Amino acid sequence: MTRAEIQQVKQRFGIIGNTEALSRAIDVAIQVAPTDLSVLITGESGVGKESFPQIIHQYSRRKHGQYIAVNCGAIPEGTIDSELFGHEKGAFTGAIGERKGYFGEADGGTIFLDEVGELPMPTQARLLRVLESGEFLKVGSSRVQKTDVRIVAATNVNLVQAISEGRFREDLYYRLNTVPIQIPPLRERGEDVLLLFRKFAADFAEKYRMPAIQLTEDAKKELLAYSWPGNVRQLKNITEQISIIETNREINAAILQTYLPTQNMQRLPALMGTRESKGFESEREILYSVLFDMRQEVAELKKMVHNMMAERAGQVSQVGTVVTTPVVAAHQPSVPAIIHAVQPAQPAVRRDDDDIQDTEEYVEEPPLSLDEVEKEMIRKALERHHGKRKSAAKDLNISERTLYRKIKEYDLD
């Protein structure tokens, strides 16, 4: 496609930016649209992946059919098969009527499966059958249903890694990934950041009936230097905050920095040996690794105190302190057991000096288990967000389905 044609597509679907990688992604979407090939859209959270399935649908022969977008990560595992494929009356408790399901509704159209990497394995097998033969079974039914639907999927999960970890089917990955489209992160889009900020500022000025905010030159440099971990979604959110809160409509770098709380964290060097995965399990491993190291340091400090007090008394301490530290494997998800310091009931050395006290026994409190700490983190996140599971899941960096399962597991309803 020509640049003029791509620019028309951008205007039609509200896509802002001139980066070559973005234009290439739009070009591929339009070229593949007339076919029935499955498309897998990949990119970080917040880059705007949801616009591309709409482009594919509108430029396809299915544009007059149904377009249904499904967030796979927001549907509880126990009901996702019913949502996608429908169910018969009485198929399970609460199934008071028949349900058609999204694949039945989208017959002749397009279905967009967002966060497809969150699908449970049994549902992945059902989806694979639809891709291979166009057939599916309703929950509670033995009658084969047919559907003619175009599937476009999107994910911010590394599916190759998920396959190696046994969380995603390899055959389904190749079926979905017939045509891959990669959406670039905002930090790689250069001057697009300024274009997006200007567009969002104008939109919020119109929405809230106030003058649009503008950036000084030093603020523009700050905006371009920031890494934008939340991508376009984060930029839009910050632009709205500034538009509402700041009375001065000219924003300098100092003001802008107050709205970028994670800026310093983004510039810290990466930890050596940490895994690339940013999932909840990985964060827990890092947390407990730090806690375990702290416990070791405390044990060493206690040992030093014992020795120093023994030296002051002019005697060799007879109190034996044994700390056994097991080797912690990098992949081990739970806190290893710690053999605590052993103290005799009575001090082994009697001191005659009145000014020197016997060494106090140190009794370490038993460490919290991994499940207890995880439960407490989830409970506090739910309290912070007043029971709103979507916000709590985002705060914990896990999907709503994972949070739903954890709430059931820990009886936090």
In the CATH hierarchy, the third-tier topology of the largest domain is known as Rossmann fold
* Helical coverage, percent range: 40-55%
Low-confidence stretches: 263-284, 316-364
Give the ordered list of helices and strands: HHEHEHHEHEEEHHEHEHHEHHHHHH
Q: Count of helical segments?
A: 17
Please tell me the total number of domains. Answer: 3
The tally of strands reads 9
Pfam families: AAA_lid_14 (PF25601), HTH_8 (PF02954), Sigma54_activat (PF00158)
Protein name: Sigma-54-dependent Fis family transcriptional regulator
Domain Sigma-54 factor interaction: 15-244
GO molecular function: ATP binding; sequence-specific DNA binding
Quick summary:
Pfam families: AAA_lid_14, HTH_8, Sigma54_activat. The chain contains 17 helices and nine strands.
